[in-house]
């Protein structure tokens, strides 16, 4: 059975992606994130649905720890055939490092974002890519907000600058490995996941990832589903005011 490793796995989109790959392709699901208790609950949900799943707790800013977690997933399941990278901030994260606008951005503000969104992705890919190239097959998908490129959102300059680096690298990486059986894609989400809009539901968005894996014809997918009169506002769960 093939295996998908979801880095930054959460109970909404991360779970939906794992469930989609299990349903459509019979995938095992390896879950990687910081909170062991949340991962354990997700594993229980998968197993109750008959899906083979396991948790590998790691913080993406601890690059050696992240590499070890993915190596453990490879050993446990035999291989990682699809890697999905999508860490997201928690309330404590945003309390520690609030969002910074473009005009206020400093080197000190952007470095932690680079650790999370870009350096962690490089470490994760470096762990699984050699095996994919050796097997001549594999898929790597990196997820970001649409502010990484397709949209301009000056209120979130630090994370968007880091995600723009991720986007640029993934597009270049796809060009580099396409002839070796590996497909790399960047998915930019302009959506409020779980907001009640049909096209913003996790299961609907998870279809994008399955299509990226099986169709392998586009290095970038831009999913836009924001209200017509959308004005940037931080999701309620991220508010610190």
UniProtKB/TrEMBL annotation:
Pfam families: adh_short (PF00106). This is SDR family NAD(P)-dependent oxidoreductase.
